[in-house]
TrEMBL record, chains A, B, C, D:
Organism: Nocardia jiangsuensis
Name assigned to this protein: 3-deoxy-7-phosphoheptulonate synthase
Pfam families per record: DAHP_snth_FXD, DAHP_synth_1
Broad class of enzyme this protein falls into: transferase
Gene Ontology molecular-function annotations: 3-deoxy-7-phosphoheptulonate synthase activity
Keywords: Transferase
EC numbers for this chain: 2.5.1.54
Gene name per UniProt: aroF
Amino acid sequence: MVIVMSAAAAGSDVGTAVALIEKAGGQAFVSRGAGRTLVCVVGDPDGFSALNLSALPGVDTVIRTSAAYKLVSRENCLARSTVQVAGASIGPGHVTLVAGPCAVESYDQTLRAAEMAAVAGATMLRGGAYKPRTSPYAFQGLGEAGLRILADVREATGLPIVTEVVDAADVGLVSSYADMLQVGTRNAQNFALLRAVGEAGTPVMLKRGMSATIDEWLMAAEYIAQHGNLDIVLCERGIRTFETATRNTLDISAVTIVQQLSHLPVIVDPSHSGGRRDLVLPLTRAAVAIGADGVIIDVHPDPATALCDGPQALIEGDLLELADILTRWGRITARHADYAGASAY
Amino acid sequence: MVIVMSAAAAGSDVGTAVALIEKAGGQAFVSRGAGRTLVCVVGDPDGFSALNLSALPGVDTVIRTSAAYKLVSRENCLARSTVQVAGASIGPGHVTLVAGPCAVESYDQTLRAAEMAAVAGATMLRGGAYKPRTSPYAFQGLGEAGLRILADVREATGLPIVTEVVDAADVGLVSSYADMLQVGTRNAQNFALLRAVGEAGTPVMLKRGMSATIDEWLMAAEYIAQHGNLDIVLCERGIRTFETATRNTLDISAVTIVQQLSHLPVIVDPSHSGGRRDLVLPLTRAAVAIGADGVIIDVHPDPATALCDGPQALIEGDLLELADILTRWGRITARHADYAGASAY
Amino acid sequence: MVIVMSAAAAGSDVGTAVALIEKAGGQAFVSRGAGRTLVCVVGDPDGFSALNLSALPGVDTVIRTSAAYKLVSRENCLARSTVQVAGASIGPGHVTLVAGPCAVESYDQTLRAAEMAAVAGATMLRGGAYKPRTSPYAFQGLGEAGLRILADVREATGLPIVTEVVDAADVGLVSSYADMLQVGTRNAQNFALLRAVGEAGTPVMLKRGMSATIDEWLMAAEYIAQHGNLDIVLCERGIRTFETATRNTLDISAVTIVQQLSHLPVIVDPSHSGGRRDLVLPLTRAAVAIGADGVIIDVHPDPATALCDGPQALIEGDLLELADILTRWGRITARHADYAGASAY
Amino acid sequence: MVIVMSAAAAGSDVGTAVALIEKAGGQAFVSRGAGRTLVCVVGDPDGFSALNLSALPGVDTVIRTSAAYKLVSRENCLARSTVQVAGASIGPGHVTLVAGPCAVESYDQTLRAAEMAAVAGATMLRGGAYKPRTSPYAFQGLGEAGLRILADVREATGLPIVTEVVDAADVGLVSSYADMLQVGTRNAQNFALLRAVGEAGTPVMLKRGMSATIDEWLMAAEYIAQHGNLDIVLCERGIRTFETATRNTLDISAVTIVQQLSHLPVIVDPSHSGGRRDLVLPLTRAAVAIGADGVIIDVHPDPATALCDGPQALIEGDLLELADILTRWGRITARHADYAGASAY
């Protein structure tokens, strides 16, 4: 059972509901997002009927749900969510561009990449300070020094930052610099980390595990939501298949399916899914056309010297076409996206 | 080594080249498509240098290729091909819609589906008379009676027909009715069938095997080309992965990669890849946006009674949106598609 | 519904049952194997109750089955089948070794490989005359000349032959030479071919499709059985996964699962699953230990010059260890295999 | 470059080598296991030639390696390792049984499961106190209370404990109870956790990621080794494929391949790979036969009431057959395993 609190609900209204539920022997998980508070109630739903929860102050509706994921489910026509990130927003009705270097290498490199991102229309900057690398001998990221660079570049460009956190113990530190936390594909079922970013309250971008089913991906989001944080953006970044022509296989269908199953925004990472620069713009066109709420793209001022994933970074010469796709295509997609939303329910 | 014959080359020019090559101990495979004739030369390339092949009458250029697939490769900037199918065409610069019922069930059902296809802007009719079904107890198609129905509906609507052939022995019969032969995903490495459709000369739509790499898919096309037929359209229809939310996982990246590797047109089957009606229009948007040369879509006047794959068929109410996607999106994609082609080489 | 005929049933008994069923509006598919005849009845089971089929002459039992595959299902405790191949047998209680060259290249090469096979304890000879190859430019097999070589080597060694058939049109020709027909992984859903080998009556080895689920594999076997032939041996040969260290991933669990679901014998191909000589003996140990009814193994007198799949062929020096595995391990496995069979039902 | 220290080397010998390397501008990673100390040297190998490292006191040999994983590689014929776990050992020459409940639920349940394990011949007890579960609403384990139960059961039975740790922050706590730490499939690329268990020094069982290639799996082990800990046991537990008949597909070939590539012991988890009780004993037979150094198996006194993975737990009645497999089969495998080791190099 999920209680949808009204926009005008006071904190005390939530407290009242929670207290009643716990008194009746249930468990209540409060999850807060931009302009939306949900309470997930665990226990026998029949046991709560006497509570008449829908009549409580501040309660909008009460949804009986059979979805395995409750707080992130779209069941019962819940409107799709918009996540706010320090002035930028990701949600239905427009296409958000998040761009930047795969890894933060230096202030100059990051600044130049951020300027490239801005030229293409980005409203958020991506960049990794903690890099999960297959080999322990590969560049592991600059750590906190990288976070400071990101903060300085934000200062210079005004772009809010999304950056990856790879350990629950680092969530506090990374949150103190970042506007949005990224949970990467290798940590998609690192439940300790999911709980920690849930408790942190900072908006989260949750990448799909490279072998996660859509169900498992939404369950991972549910961990974050259950621990208090409903400001979650899902990111499709390709799955592992037998095909070796691409680093991963972009599962473009997942965008539509997840938008039907969940109210959370969904963006696409055309850089990491293909792993090839020549696929980034075509996959961006596909992502925008199918109705993704945004794209996250690697750009680098000099990919040949990049310390991580150079071959997939866009360069200067690609930016105008990227901008063109996002404006021209975004416009006609918005209409489709709304229709899709409407027709699905 | 591949000899590109000029558009004006006479049949005797081809014969002269072949005779020279064979005399020099090589093998020559002549492959003919709409407005394009290629000759694949197998043997030691150095052994043919004295022949001065590029100076022969009717020879445009001679390409030394290292691609494993030679006749279907795009190496050395070969312009992308257009395949002509009885008045319809599939190739760069526009988006072709092929639509119709998954299986031919009756004249009425097929006619009504064809009329639906036409409303959406289809220039070709699809429909299966021979159905490869997982179970021997499932409906196996009407066979030749189905082919006759297709021919009658072509008569009534003017739409050329593409229909599947599942056995080398049937190629002659199916060719006598169909304008284009379809080789299905389960026969993607049925080499006897590939050879037979190569020899038949009728245009071919070659679906990707559900577990075929892009390389294997192009190699399957090479079998057809090597046996004389260059009028091949490749069709991405989803690959088999661990994800069970969709029947297959549409590998949208494959469209761009194949257009780079091969001169052959590439279309997408959004119906069979997702296996769900609610994904057909979104996936069509993605396919058009990435630059597919067409889409092939199941439509059915009454999906609830369909003998095969009803759940994925579009209905009456979907047709206008489908038409809108193809016109509105097709227009702006054409420009991108040309750019992509240009930039790739 | 499946009618199990008694061992003593006359041909006329089968005819009587079929006639009754058809008169009652049902369809009857008669399937014959070594010492076992089954009749699959399609139609409303309640409609046949008045026929009292189990009282008919020659009828042993009547099984109501809900399995999608009926003739090859093991439902209702059907004892596991043994398939007889010209004196050799494959079935429960012992481990059959089928060995020989991947491709027949010459009489000498085939004879030497057959002698190697015999040294290792093989009771059947494998060897391909028709080779399905990814590239049309690769060696495609010797065709009928290869079949003649196989027949000559059988003459010289006494080993019955299993060889692949790749086209329905060739089934008659190949059957005229071979003791057992092999349907390869690429033709695992070539239904025209499955029907043809079903009608031919020659024993069949059906390889699993490289992306076939166990259900699809059994359904493919059902096609053969439905067309009259119950002498089918299933062969697990690895499936396609993301792992690239091996050519395919041997699905060793499939052996046990298929033996539970079907009465047909199951063998393992450790050569093609791994694609590496150094895995053949270890995978053979695993196959024998889990209870496979046999193994099919590539041997070659001189792998370095092999025209097909040399890197996976065993050489002279491996034969004694192979023989040792099959005898020593086979002995203790036989007991387990029987137990497994008993405990599973 | 890897320095193999001799068994008699003093701690000061290692210190001397490290100091020299660092003085020459290199990095040295010291990794210690039972009876084996390795030093991985990163930097230009030619730059270290003047150091004459092989002549240093306590140095056995110096290996120039091109393997991406250096400390865990078997390059240059390194003998296979044995890992010691509080009296139990895992390594070549015998088959170790680790058994116990999937999750620790209570003292009684754990004690009874441990007694079952002992009956089957287990020398180590498994049991989860921290359970990584797909759903946040599923039983998440008893946490430290579970660790205390495990310690009490160890006291009662004498069996050393392996238990999972899911967060780097918990490594100290879990190490204070456990004899061996388990890193689960979902954390196979949780590099923060891998580093932490590397530093802890407690022996580690590293499960293969469900979509990890063999290379990625060995790289994960290298993280642990690089951080000081060479007492690592690798555990194959099935990979994710398209097949749905089993929870995962056991990649039995991986056992042999990993034993060739790495000196670390490799065990198999037949319970989690199949996810079905009826597959556990057959897969155990296959694992022992191919030469796995051990198996880890779920047992439960009452699977029907299990809070986690009941359907795959062995019961009382299976134990004697399990014991029989391990003794009877283990004996004849030992010989093969040694041979395999010998022949591979």
